[in-house]
């Protein structure tokens, strides 16, 4: 392979050997000079490049080339002088010999024209034209009327140029020769000659002009004729032309219709309107889908990435569980000149922008209307902004509120109408508080609603952040409301809906806000636990936060960034906070209710809750035996709070009615009378027993149900034995107890545990790796860079080998040359020696002959 | 006596008196004036007086102007016909004595500054008196130490009424010195015995003070250290008891045994037991003597038993203590409160040690595992995260116990054969049971607990899980960890729209609570 490749890398600059090409082109008749490279297998359509080699020819070529280059170098090796041909372009192979000649000539001329010294101004240089000195030509003394108009084409007539530039020596000579032939006897002067020339050229010019005018005239005439004929040909055209000049033709109504219909944008096929059943069905399907997702999360199936296993384990698998499952590179994009990295954000922003244009008018209108003194315009603006909002569920919810507000309090309406219609989103909590404080519940809701609509993220780019902040502020406001002395639970109740809506819009920031308040509460508790070893029940705000967290986020998830910490927080409340008062009992029971609500769908087991209920039951038990149960941490078997829920007054017991506990109890409401306190105690007990019942239902399927519930059962039995409770409560206890025992019996079939059979580890099968061959003749199965690298390595190797071979051959060639030189030198010396000997012998012979002659003489 | 107003005036006046007394013996009666100021109401004046006394008697002690030897009564000497110098010396010694008494009373002064100054002055006297003994040496090179004075100081520290912890923390500096430490131990032993004998109901403050003092005494681990003496001696003799660490240990042991012999309040029991393994047991001459105390504490039950475990373990482990029914008692200690007490980490660390032996019978380990898992039904998540690996470790160590989680040949049972009331692990029938509790905990609300409990579903891995990092886990750490965990996708949301705080009908909160 590559036999024709010569060491071009060493000796550049030599012209391509012409001989080689001719040698190649020539068909070689001698079969003995041809080497045939046998192909292993024939491939159709492939051109065999080196099927036939001509070793003799290529060797000759190589030798020839070496003689031209290497040998030359070798011969000049000791010479310090080198002959450099400085002629222009001598070594440039890109110029043709003709070009070289031209350039050289130009250069020569230029050199001649160059001044000897640039300061020598007086040095006159001889200007030439076509080798003729201009000074000579000037002697003609011609006055040429060089009217530029005359030269239309930019080319001068031969005579003229000859006359002007004096050059055209040849011409002149020719002419003179001709004229010499005509009228030798009267040689005209140079002036005459020129004049004649001028006259001639002028005439020529005039003729040309006339010709052109004639042609123009002819065309005009033809046009006229054509117009006349045209009127004959079509009658209408001139009329329409005239009309066009006067007025636009009135389009026919029918035509218009047809056109319109023809060009009208075809409406894309849209979905047909859905019937109510279909809508309901769709909604149901949506809910089902959400429910399925919830169940999946509850079971923790998609917990972490570890569950995401690759299906097929290849033999080449490194066993490091590496799967490239998601390309998490951020996409870079630009929105209004700013670089934004997150794709989502940019989408949002651009959405906002595009919608901004659409909604500019309504918002402007809003502003105008707000300045409008007419109060009733709020309906319009609200509906408009609701359209912007694009949330179907806000409308029905808002409508009744508004109706209520409009119908109900006429007196207050005037005041409410004074509320501004647009609100800037509050930048700080104090701002929000100042907006909301001192207003009625409806007004507060309206304000929040308006803030939300005015700052909908589709209206402006920064609104998203504003509303995200609004969520945090609202949460803080709710906390403040709950911690005040008389908590405004009604407002909280309604604000929760707003919080829910905001949360649906911005889940991430909402979860962060909730996490933040929870962390605050936990930090407070932690500090207290570390300092004093125990902590009092926190205020109503923490409980409300926990409740809100449960309403905004799914509580049944196996793991959830918000609800799992919330669960831990509740567990802490139940285990670390000792029960010191009736308020604590109510708070604790509220936490229990929330806890059970959290796990109502997932049916998860809460040990702390069972302990707490046990403790509550215990502090309500009159005569304790303490058999079959043990109290745990926040409760003590004896102490001043061990009989907190005990009701000894029989009258109070008799008058008790089962009612819901008021949340106000949790916020420091004081019992007015002893009877009221006693009633609350009984209510607490009733709630506690009801919760026990709920637990029994919830946990009936747990394998250790009996063991979990045993202490509760023992305490309930004690309760029943006392018979001091009101009949309703007694009944509740009875039913709960029977349920506990029944459930216990049902689930008492204890089956010994058995581990899941672990699957036998399959032998690793070393399956061959199959790779699709996409293109033959290429190195396969790697990336582009890898391929390129391999190609380069291969090329380098080939080149290296070739270079080594060439150097070897060069050396051989040189050695051969040296040998031949030596041989030549030796032969020469021998010849010379021989010659010397010859001459000497001849001399000797001559001398001897002379001597002999002498002797003879 | 003429005095200017304020402490400055008092200082100047006292300075004059002091110089007068030191200058000539004729002015000696001025000492009474100085001593009188010690009883003053103003604490600033008292401070000045204490300083003056300190300087005065320090100078006198150094000059040797106090009577050396057995002190005769003042009246007899003054009445007798001895020389004037002797009379002066005896008289001055008596003044010195009364000064020491007043200073000792000042240790119970209301102002901390006065107390501290009194203590340092007394200790200075101790030092000087040790250097210039006030009693005649019985033989040459005899070890002399102002026992009387020092004992009075220690007695003042171990007050019956006041909490002297601040003063004791100052006294702790002196305990660096070998001789002070040795004599403190002796004095403390005596005082504890005397107080306990004198009063039928010893006040709590005394015990607290005594414990603070006793726990402040720490012996060096090894003898080779150069001993530092508070009282400077010309040369140390090997015949002195103070020099030897062995004697120190004996005194230390006597002191603690004497202290622990008495009925201590429960809080103090805990405190003693907490430092027992670290700072008491290693320094006793015969650690096995502590066995009585430890067994008594171990039998007490509750947290005290848990704490006594540590000391017992050291005795069993290092001193060949044979403790019958140790495991049975350990088993008895397991009750629901262990997950809630403060010493949970220590207890489980020790329990892990006790149960790490592979020579334990399977029934015992099974009983422990079953008991712990039964208790786990009432444990908070932070304890569960520790105890579940603990149980799994038990099963790993003792393959015979694996029937608890894997019993393919077992028959279906009517009820759990395990008897939680039985105190003897051998008869609790734990091996016939299964850990259904862990199966129940797989439904725990906390995901990590649920995962930890699900380990038993598969065959247990061979290597144990180290529970050391889990021992100190608190709920707050779990909370933080959960908060910091990143959610990969966006946060899932509740799809049932909220309708108010108590909006949903099937909500338990809505059923049982009202807003109004």
TrEMBL record, chain A:
Its main location: nucleus. Transmembrane segments: none annotated. Residues 362-372 have a biased composition (Acidic residues). One of its GO terms (cellular component) is nucleoplasm. Residues 1-33, 165-413 are annotated as: Disordered. Residues 185-228, 238-263, 273-308, 339-361 have a biased composition (Basic and acidic residues). GO terms for molecular function: enzyme binding. Keywords: Nucleus, Ribosome biogenesis, rRNA processing. GO terms for biological process: maturation of SSU-rRNA. Pfam families: Nop14. It is found in: Nucleus, Nucleolus. It comes from the Eukaryota. Involved in nucleolar processing of pre-18S ribosomal RNA. Has a role in the nuclear export of 40S pre-ribosomal subunit to the cytoplasm. Belongs to the NOP14 family. PANTHER family: NOP14 (PTHR23183), NUCLEOLAR PROTEIN 14 (PTHR23183:SF0). This is Nucleolar protein 14. The gene is NOP14.
UniProtKB/TrEMBL annotation, chain B:
InterPro entries: ARM-type_fold, CCAAT-binding_factor, Noc4. Pfam families: CBF. Its main location: nucleus. Keywords: Membrane, Transmembrane, Transmembrane helix. Signal peptide: none annotated. Residues 305-453 form the CCAAT-binding factor domain. The keyword Transmembrane applies. It comes from the Eukaryota. It is found in: Nucleus membrane. SUPFAM superfamilies: ARM repeat. The keyword Transmembrane applies. It is a multi-pass membrane protein. Belongs to the CBF/MAK21 family. This is Nucleolar complex protein 4 homolog isoform X2. The lineage of its organism: Eukaryota, Metazoa, Chordata, Craniata, Vertebrata. The gene is NOC4L.
